[in-house]
């Protein structure tokens, strides 16, 4: 049914109700949104409070970790020199690959584990006095007597002092090179290399010998052997094999790097990359220089982050300017300590990040800008770094919020749905009541009109007859016939209304008996033809039975009067809505155990939108061609009641302007 038909007066009540409902839904949505915002703010605050507590616990754990390290360093700085290597080595074994333990004394610096520091801030080699080699160098340089000089250096090479032997072998090899005895020089350098860390000048004998061999091998054009020895020497330099200064390290790595392959230059083969190893050594160098610049006999604790290029190092030093112990820890060691601190916070589900005092990131377990985080600056904690704490999984923290939000949304959705359903039900009920009231009003008007017409005719004719104004007996007989016909019409109308009321109430009883359909239809057609013949209408009977040209008869169980009334209503409708074509066709044919009685006309037809509603009570089609047609709107509803009470069905097929066909199907009576 069109919405404009639903919203007839008093439509303002429906519009008002719709407006109130819309306001209610909007208010409900706004309130739900505000509740969700407040709930999220409360949940965020709860997470923030938990992170603040976790940050305090993490800062305390870091403080305890550093305090334990400082205690260990204080004990190491006081350990006797004879016990220091064992104690320091045991402690250094716990460090990561980018961390070093250093012990600083007035005599120099020792690092642990051994071999991890690729160059040292200071070395103090013990070299023999120059006078030991003065006579040989005079023969070599002033007198150019290489034979005598060689014999002298060879004799010194037998000395019990390793430093003297190292110095003599270095000079003997030089004599062989000047004499162009390169193979002999290589042999002497090999002997010199066996002296290991024995100082030659400020460098270890092995380093001096292996570096010199490269030059000799280059002169001999022994490329393969040169490549092999250069790669080995380069790797040993980065492995911290010798205690050399930064200047010595840079010189030798630069010179040896001319002989090695590019892959060796970028990866010398030690546990750290070349870049990391250099950075660690540079950090130790800074530690040494800072310690040497301290005040004598002043015991202090130094904790700070230093950057060597892009590499951060935490320096912790405990002791005085006379002796101290320290740790220089790179990002790997800091990461290990951070992991240990996180383990203490495992039940809190947090992740940590650290930065230097200026806020430059060092290690982070989460994004740079987490939605919720807690921060502890170095000034607050006394730590040499800034600590940040965030949730390891913010979604997991908000899972309870999400659950509450789902429940809240579900509740609001149910309320909104109930409001909408109630809105629909009320609107539907109101519009149906309005429609029913309209239909009843139309019905009363139609019935009043149907009664008024025959009553008016009967009254006029009766008044004429009573007044004696009809002189002709033929005219009086005609008037009597009209009065009789109109009274019959009123009788059918009244009986129809009464029967329809009984049908609606379920109180009408049908008396079923075997009825021959063809005879019933013929009788009905004869009666109806008399009714409409004067108006020029013709009822054409086709189909089975004697009148239809067939010999078969079909029997149904039916109430004779009720079935006639149903078919009469169909014929009456066909005549009413066929103003131009004065012929109506009726036939009966068997179909699948039923008898189908069809009433067909070529009238105005029924709109497709109205075809489903024509069998409803009080419904009358709308259109310019049928607005003036008389009727009560219960004829087709009565047809449906009667046919369905007989176990049958009624259907309509129609096209506007082409007419309509109503089909009544009734089950045949069993033999």
Question: How are the SSEs placed, and which strands pair?
Answer:
Blueprint: H1 3-6, H2 11-77, H3 84-92, E1 99-105, E2 108-112, H4 134-141, H5 146-156, H6 162-178, H7 182-193, E3 199-200, E4 203-204, H8 205-219, H9 223-238, H10 246-256, H11 262-266, H12 274-292, E5 300-308, E6 311-319, E7 323-329, H13 331-344, E8 350-355, E9 361-364, E10 373-376, H14 378-381, E11 386-391, H15 394-397, H16 399-466, H17 473-505, E12 513-516, H18 517-532, E13 538-543, E14 555-558, H19 560-576, E15 583-591, E16 594-601, H20 635-645, E17 649-655, E18 659-667
Parallel strand pairs: 13-15
Antiparallel strand pairs: 1-2, 1-7, 3-4, 5-6, 6-7, 8-9, 8-11, 10-11, 12-14, 15-16, 16-18, 17-18
Helix pairs in contact: 2-13, 2-16, 4-5, 5-6, 6-7, 7-8, 8-9, 9-10, 16-17, 17-20, 18-19, 19-20
Key features of this structure:
671 residues, five-stranded mixed sheet, alpha+beta, 54% helix, Heat Shock Protein 90, Serine Threonine Protein Phosphatase 5, Tetratricopeptide repeat, five-stranded antiparallel sheet
């Amino acid at each position: 049914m069109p919405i404009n038909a639903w919203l007839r007066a008093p439509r303002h009540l429906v519009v008002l109700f719709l407006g109130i409902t819309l306001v209610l839904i909007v208010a409900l949505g706004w309130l739900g949104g505000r509740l969700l915002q407040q709930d999220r703010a409360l949940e965020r605050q709860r997470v923030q409070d938990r992170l603040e507590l976790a940050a305090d616990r993490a800062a305390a754990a870091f403080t305890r970790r550093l305090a334990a390290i400082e205690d260990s360093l204080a004990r190491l700085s006081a350990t006797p020199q004879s016990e220091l290597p064992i104690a320091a080595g045991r402690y250094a074994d716990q460090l990561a690959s980018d961390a070093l333990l250093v012990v600083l004394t007035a005599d120099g610096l020792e690092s642990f584990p051994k071999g991890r520091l690729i160059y040292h801030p200071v070395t103090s080699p013990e070299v023999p006095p120059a006078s030991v080699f003065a006579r040989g160098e005079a023969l070599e340089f002033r007198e150019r007597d290489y034979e005598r000089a060689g014999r002298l250096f060879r004799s010194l090479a037998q000395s019990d002092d390793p430093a003297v032997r190292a110095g003599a072998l270095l000079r003997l090899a030089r004599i062989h090179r000047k004499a162009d005895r390169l193979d002999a020089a290589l042999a002497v350098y090999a002997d010199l290399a066996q002296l290991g860390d024995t100082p030659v000048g400020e460098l270890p004998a092995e380093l001096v010998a292996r570096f010199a061999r490269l030059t000799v091998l280059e002169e001999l054009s022994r490329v393969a052997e040169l490549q092999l020895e250069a790669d080995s020497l380069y790797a040993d330099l980065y492995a911290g094999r010798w205690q050399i200064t930064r200047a010595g390290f840079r010189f030798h790595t630069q010179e040896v790097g001319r002989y090695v392959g590019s892959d060796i230059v970028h990866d010398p083969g030690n546990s750290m990359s070349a870049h990391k190893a250099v950075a660690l050594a540079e950090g130790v160098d800074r530690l040494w220089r800072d310690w040497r610049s301290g005040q004598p006999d002043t015991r202090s604790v130094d904790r700070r982050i230093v950057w060597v290029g892009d590499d951060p190092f935490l320096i912790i030093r405990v002791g005085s300017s006379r002796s101290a112990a320290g740790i220089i820890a790179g990002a790997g060691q800091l990461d290990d300590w951070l992991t240990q601190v996180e383990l203490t916070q495992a039940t809190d589900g947090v992740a940590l990040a650290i930065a230097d005092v200026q806020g430059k990131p060092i290690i982070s377990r989460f994004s740079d800008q987490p939605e919720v985080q807690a921060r502890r600056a170095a000034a607050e904690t006394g730590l040499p770094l800034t600590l940040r704490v965030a949730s390891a999984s913010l979604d997991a923290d908000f899972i309870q919020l999400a659950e509450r939000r789902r429940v809240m949304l579900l509740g609001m959705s149910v309320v909104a749905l109930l409001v909408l359903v109630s809105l629909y039900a009320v609107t539907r009920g109101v519009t149906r009541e309005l429609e029913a009231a309209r239909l009843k009003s139309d019905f009363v008007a139609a019935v009043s009109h149907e009664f008024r017409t025959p009553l008016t005719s009967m009254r006029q004719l009766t008044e004429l007859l009573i007044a004696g104004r009809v002189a002709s007996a033929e005219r009086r007989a005609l008037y009597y016939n009209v009065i009789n016909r109109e009274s019959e019409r009123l009788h059918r109308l009244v009986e129809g209304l009464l029967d329809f009321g009984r049908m609606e109430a379920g109180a009408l009883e049908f008396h079923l008996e075997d009825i021959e359909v063809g005879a019933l239809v013929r009788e009905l057609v004869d009666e109806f033809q008399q009714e409409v013949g004067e108006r020029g209408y013709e009822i054409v009977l086709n189909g089975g039975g004697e009148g239809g040209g067939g010999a078969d008869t079909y029997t149904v169980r039916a109430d004779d009067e009720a079935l006639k009334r149903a078919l009469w209503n169909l014929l009456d409708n066909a005549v009413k809505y066929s103003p131009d074509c004065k012929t109506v066709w009726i036939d009966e044919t068997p179909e699948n155990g039923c008898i189908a009685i069809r009433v067909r006309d070529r009238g105005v037809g029924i709109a497709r939108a109205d075809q489903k509603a024509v069998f409803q009570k009080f419904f009358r089609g709308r259109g310019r061609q049928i607005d003036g047609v008389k009727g009560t709107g219960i004829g087709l509803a009565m047809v449906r009641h009667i046919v369905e009470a007989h176990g049958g069905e009624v259907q309509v097929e129609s096209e506007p302007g082409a007419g309509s066909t109503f089909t009544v199907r009734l089950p045949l009576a069993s033999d």
